[in-house]
Amino acid sequence: MSGSSPAVPASAGSSPREWSFDAPVWRWREGSWRFVTVPEDVSDEVDETVGGLTGGFGSVRVEVTVGRTVWRTSLFPSSEAGAYVLPVKKAVRVAEGLADDAVAEVTIRLVDR
C-alpha cells in the first residue's frame, strides 16, 4: 500500500500476534470517521493468524497503541484497500495530535474474543 511503511516487529520479544507500522490517517467520505489502513503484508499476516475466527463483518479484535494512547477496537476488512482498516476515534486523534493525512505510529495486538 503506498503511503505506509513496511511493518516492523513491535519489539524484540514481540509475538506473532503483534505488529507495528506507520500509516496516514484518512477521512471516510464526508463523514466524521477516520481510519488508518493496515499495510497489506500485516493484513495478510493477521488473516493467517486468525484464520476464519473473525467477528461480524469479518472484524478482528485488537488492542491498539498510538503514542501514549491504548484502546481496544476492531480491524475491518476493506475490499477497496485490499487490507484491513483501523478506526481511529476522535479522543485518540486529539490526544495524539493527529490531523487528517498525519502519519500515525501504530501497534496492533490481537486479543481474544
Give structural attributes:
2 helices; 113 residues; alpha+beta; six-stranded antiparallel β-barrel; single chain
Can you give a write-up of this model?
The protein is α+β, with helices and mostly antiparallel strands and 113 residues long. The chain has one domain (18-110): Beta Barrel (Elongation Factor Tu (Ef-tu), domain 3), CATH 2.40.30.100. Helices cover 16% and strands 39% of the residues. The chain contains two helices and six strands, in the order ββαβββαβ. A six-stranded antiparallel barrel has the order 1-2-5-4-3-6. The longest helix is centred in the middle third of the chain and has 11 residues, at 40-50.
Describe the structure concisely:
The chain has 2 helices and 6 strands; from the N terminus they run E-E-H-E-E-E-H-E.
Uncertain segments of ≥5 residues (pLDDT<50)? 1-6, 8-13
Number of helices: 2
- The CATH topology turns out to be Elongation Factor Tu (Ef-tu), domain 3
Rg: 13 Å
Overall residue-averaged pLDDT value: 87
- Portion of residues in helices? 10-25%
* Largest pleated sheet: 6 strands, antiparallel, barrel
CATH 4th-level superfamily: AF2212/PG0164-like
Query: Would you identify the CATH architecture?
Result: Beta Barrel
Broad shape: globular
Question: How would you summarize the topology of this molecule?
Answer:
Layout (H helix, E strand, L loop, with lengths): L17 E10 L6 E4 L2 H11 L9 E7 L2 E10 L4 E5 L2 H7 L6 E8 L3
Antiparallel strand pairs: 1-2, 1-6, 2-5, 3-4, 3-6, 4-5
